[in-house]
Amino acid sequence: MKKIGLTTTVPVEVILAAGYKPVDINNLFITSEDYSKYIDIAERDGFPKSLCAWIKGIYGACMENDIKEIVGVMEGDCSNTKALIEVLRLKGIKVYPFSFPYSHNKRDVEIEIKKFMDIFNVSLEKVENVRNRLNEIRELAKEVDKLTYVENKATGFENHLYQVSLSDLNGDVDKFEVELKNAVSKIKKRVPINKKLRLGYIGVPPMTADLYKFVEKFNSHIVYNEVQREFAFPRADRASNIYEQYYDYTYPYDIKFRIKELKEQINERNLDGIIHYTQAFCYRAVEDIVLKQQLDIPILNIEGDKLNSLDARTKLRLEAFLDMLLDLKGEAR
């Protein structure tokens, strides 16, 4: 099976229907034991230091892992992806474009997905068959989510990991399904996590995955991972077709649509506070202004750059934020 790289979540049903093995290059980059080498490769090839580490990591991972074809999202994701794609084309990598239309109009979404299906020469019937198969696995991811915020048995990191992996299903649908089933079975047997604070994590998945263990030290449990949950398409079962499914996907569209879902989840999960992660040099950091005005809940914005672990300053800010939330609840640490 020929592999194809993804710069973010795209209609993976189309790719699988075309017989490709999807590889989310973000996951390939950040899970590497020597992830920083990918950033170094990009900077040696001329990428500026004042550019998002994810973009540089994606480039380096493509160069080092023999990825010859990628799907590049031209609209609805990172504004730097367009420039990245031009460089990858220069390096001989074949790029298939896809866009989440800014209009967020159902008809426009349908047009873009039909164009995507035409590129890979697959029928709607075949794509829907794959979608039905993936929705079985997405139900398992929803179970992990419920084990996190309802039964309080899954950790915030497990919630993050299993949902973010739905972007490419780790390249093997059947194997990933078995992994998820085993995880659900194992987590169900645990005693509930007893923490005073219920936190939400919003923003792009973090470079600093140690965030989850760190907050647990302060009587806190992350029970909501916004974008990771969207990657797992928790509402896919309500969609009558692939067009509706990707229309009802909050990540690539306007912030008003995103905020509506955030408000629902804040109430559903009874959150005490939110950690908003943004990446250095990313335009999405500006959205923090809107989020703080529109969401009636304490929010701490933290920023990541090249490090895959929290720095001392961020740890101090997190600790102070969590102490404040405990004070608001009248609880001791």
From TrEMBL:
Gene3D superfamilies on file: 3.40.50.11890, 3.40.50.11900
Look up the record and name the cofactor or cofactors this protein needs. [4Fe-4S] cluster
Q: Which Pfam families match?
A: HGD-D (PF06050)
Q: Which keywords label this protein?
A: Coiled coil, Iron, Iron-sulfur, Metal-binding
- Provide the coiled-coil residue spans: 124-186
Entry annotated with the keyword Lipid biosynthesis: no
- Where does the source fall among the domains of life? Bacteria
Q: Which family does it belong to?
A: Belongs to the FldB/FldC dehydratase alpha/beta subunit family.
- Name recorded for this polypeptide: 2-hydroxyacyl-CoA dehydratase
Source species of the chain: Clostridium aestuarii
